[in-house]
Write a structure and sequence with these properties.
Pfam families: Xre_MbcA_ParS_C. This protein is mainly α. It is 61% helix and 0% strand.
Length: 67
């Protein structure tokens, strides 16, 4: 459980860095994503595997790979 908490903290920092804004990142978390199969990133945050999928999606956004 502690590891999951740390991963969520890391995800939050990374997401806010990618979007350069806390509000925009939080909005993105609640928006359905084609890259994630049409679900919200937020819905994946209950497991390490899901968090990694969201991190991967953020990495693609950071590098301009939107699909």
């Amino acid at each position: 459980m502690q590891d999951l908490k740390k991963e969520l903290i890391d995800l939050k920092k990374y997401g806010e860095s990618v979007f350069e804004d806390k509000t925009n990142f939080e909005k993105w978390l609640k928006t359905k994503s084609k890259a994630l199969g049409g679900i919200t990133p937020e819905s994946l945050l209950n497991s390490a595997r899901g968090i990694q999928k969201v991190m991967d999606a953020l990495g693609r956004i950071e590098h301009g790979i939107l699909a």
